[in-house]
Prior knowledge:
Layout: H1 6-11, E1 46-50, H2 61-76, E2 79-83, H3 91-103, E3 109-111, H4 117-126, E4 132-135, E5 144-149, H5 151-165, E6 170-175, H6 183-196, E7 201-206, H7 213-216, H8 219-231, E8 236-240, H9 245-252, E9 260-265, H10 274-277, E10 280-286, H11 288-301, E11 307-311, E12 318-320, H12 331-343
Parallel strand pairs: 1-2, 1-3, 3-4, 4-5, 5-11, 6-7, 6-8, 8-9, 9-10
Antiparallel strand pairs: 10-12
Amino acid sequence: MRHTTKLAALAVTVALLVAGCAKKEDTGGAATSDELCADKSGAGPKVGLAYDIGGRGDHSFNDLAAAGVKKSLDELDATCEESEAAAQEPDSAKEERLRTLAEAGFNPVVAVGFVYTEEVNKVAKEYPNVKFAVVDGFAEGPNITNLVFSVEQGSFLVGVAAGLKTKTKKVGFIGGVRGPIIDPFAAGFKAGLAAVDPSIKLDMKWLSDTGDAKAFANPPGAKTAATALYDGGADIVFHASGLSGGGLFDVVGTKPDGIWAIGVDSDQYQTATPEQQKHILTSSLKKVDVAVFDFVKAFKDGTTKAGYDLYDIKRDGVGYATSGGFLDDVTAKIDEYKAKLVSGELTAPSKL
């Protein structure tokens, strides 16, 4: 993924309202969860955590951020406060969420998702002594760190895995919407397939023309797309579509052995049903938990830096999952490609 211009970022702000996270039951409004942050006795950093839509329990983006904070509680003696977003909330609610955390003395403050960028820009100026991090952000300020990821590299590796495991030589991809957020997943996956066997056919399905709920909170749409891909001969389908990907897993769970799905962001094998687990080949990992913990640790050490903090394959910020053991026979080969990405011998593209 490239975060090179603010213009490109602005073009997809709406997409990030729902991208990269899965939605749990709607509570009808913004809410906070006290389970993770119940213990206030720590003497370390006081971390404020502002979730994207879906909040903790989404099995993806938000849960990864929470895991990073949990590690901070365990290893840095930190305490925390969570604040969740509500569906279709105005931008002013995000701004107020950040301001409330900062005003209450939480420092640093982690905003989960690109959608917080403009609000962090504004609130960070009001609280110059508070350090802010934005996951996938493009914010600018002396007290702001953007935690960004080379997702095309992890997607390249799961493309290699798919290329090595496909029997039909037909593979599918389900994306939420075309643009600079999801294109790197598709581009990296396509390149990984081609690196193994250029003759493999890749069929892509896009769920929406805009970054709306149809793109990223649409399991029925992904279910329809997955059915079409499998019926068309694909034996492996990778998704980068947030909550929508649940539709893919529903379909693949009904398939015979040898038909696979690939998850995204987190190790989605870990949160799948037993029937689905039999078919989840791997997941393209985006280690938001690592980035969040690193940021809190840097805050404690007094070493936070403004600007972009890139998590790529060299930093183990992206990668692929091996849960289930379905890649045991090809892991050594995949790791050969990984080594070439690390060395720079291979470059994963971020554009289709």
